[in-house]
Amino acid sequence: MPAPTLRRGTCGVVLAALLGTGLAACGDSGEIKKPDLVEGAEAGGKLTIGISYDEPGVGFKDGDDYSGFDVDTATYVAEALGVDDDDITWVRADPADREELLTSGQADLVVATYSITDERKQQVDFAGPYFVAHQDLLIRRNDTEITGPKTLHDRVLCSVTGTTSSEYVREHYKGDITLKEYPRYSACVEALLDGKVDAVTTDDLILAGYASEDRYRGKLKVVGDGFTDERYGIGVRKGDTALVAKVDAALKQYIDDGSWRAALDESVGGSGYDLPDPPTPGTA
To answer: Which of 60, 91, 155, 157 has its Cα between 20 and 30 A from that of 148?
Structure first.
């Protein structure tokens, strides 16, 4: 099997649609640096890492190419743990499967827009957080009636099974909003285009990535009124405190040496998006 290709340095436009700016030219950005080994790490290891395969700008697989902010984050962390690019095995981590990947040993780490929650902490441990996103809505471009979840009365809202987004809707809008769930966001987006659902909900970063794709641009838009905070963590098998500590150390280096911001620039740069301040790893 050929080594996967990591597409670093490509200009992303994930949040262009969120801001209504469309595609923009790449701006100058720093470089993602090669990290130093964290304490306790040794060169020459291997890792299996779960990522999303269908979230443009975040975690995306195109043939043998892997790209997006989560991919860059996972690659940097792996290198800080002594694992070269070609010694990473990537596996698909759909939202409903993330805990199982870790508990069964099918993945060593999961870096897949994985929100840190107390419920999930019962099954897995987290390093991080490494990013804070906000739940939002994706709607059809010509829709002027949907401005937030409170305007979805008697509408059909799509999300993905096993996500904090679907849990939030069930908890706060049960009986008011009809929730339809699919295994992947790409299925929700297609259902939105086909008129089978009225909106899609998940994190703004993911939604804007879809709205920015060529096949969806001009057809879909992000409402742009986030209503939750989603702290992304790196999932680790429950009880592996040593690995959590090493990953946290890698994430701190990732932020401190400028690579975190460079990775975001590559994924969402050129869109006019005001990059957020980084969170503090080790507070998961």
So the answer is: 60
